[in-house]
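Incident log entry.

Two folding requests arrived from the same account within the same minute. Monitoring flagged them as a possible duplicate submission, but the sequences differ. Recording both here for audit purposes.

Request one:
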Amino acid sequence: MRRDRVRALLDEVAQGRLPVADALAQLDDAPVDELGFATVDQHRALRQGYPEVIFGQGKTAEQVVAIAERLASKGDGFLVTRAEDAGRAALAARWPAAEVNAIARTVLLRPDRPRAEGTRAVAVVTAGTSDLPVAEEAAVTLDAFGVPVLRVTDVGVAGIHRILAKRDALHGAAVVIVVAGMDGALPSVVGGLVRGPVVAVPTSVGYGAAFGGLAPLLTMLNSCAAGVTVVNIDNGFGAAVAAARILEA
């Protein structure tokens, strides 16, 4: 259960609108659900602010649906990343309202509550169209966490005027996530343009000497723009979580 739902329960108890016993009944769950093949962390949202996210890669469709069932039962919806074709189809069949993003390989079932207003947007910037799967994973994750997203696509350094034309939009973002493969130079450029936090995501896009994302990873780690933070190769999810935590700090 998310922290905001627990806070609402406690407010109802404090105001005399909800008996203590009824509130306890809603909170009286074990911290984990044992499924045999998985141990679902039901208290992660209380500790971290966001429920457990399902990593779909390598799981059967039946396993993904079973885990999603447990998470959805709390009213918090669910997010599945790296969902394989069979898993996406099974989730869509079980929850017709779920949002399937084939590019991001995600499935999102929104929680049964309105989104909080007032959060500043996070910009998700891609160097090239080939980086979109990773960027979309970040964007969907932010959306699942209730963070508005500004997408800025295909503005790599091969045509530097493209990113320069987006300076005003980038300045207005609370955090900028920059997704790039090949030479991985774009985060340094963005880091030199904005004052807010920059989270760099290397992708495995590129020819042989890109070494499956290692070359852009090393470029980003050696950025001459101070303060650029780097996550793992193709880890759009991790970048989104980092950005969300920055906003909560």
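Request two (distinct sequence, not a duplicate):
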Amino acid sequence: METDINLSKIGRNSLVLLRILIGWHFLYEGVLKLYNPAWTSKAYLSSAELLRPLFQWLSSDAMIHLVDNLNIFSLMVVGLSLLLGLFERIGSVFGICLLLIYYIAHPALPGASQVGTEGSYWIINKNLIEATALFVLYHIPTGSYFGLNLLRKILLAPQTK
């Protein structure tokens, strides 16, 4: 689906920069977790207050290894898709899903425990802000302005003489 949005060059470049920075953040988080053998999401998930039974199950000994590996893999794939501008709409959707899971596990609600979270400002936190930015990027084809989607479009375009 090609979105017909008339943006200035500065507007397009600003959104491309936003996509790249968010992609870097996702990729960095995934790589950091991959190369830290002590990292696990067990404490974060087991301390969740909303949907407690679900997050307790995800943090169980039977599931935590799979959950941790899926989290790392997902962070890295989303990061690469956004950084490279290739299938960035799909990457945006998966990124939104990850961020909303993180938010639901520890929402920034008054009285809710904020164990293991950062950047929480009464209802709004950094996960919700970044998910909203990805929602905007989902609707604007920044990969067709700068990224491998642009290169793919150029290479696959019918040659006219």
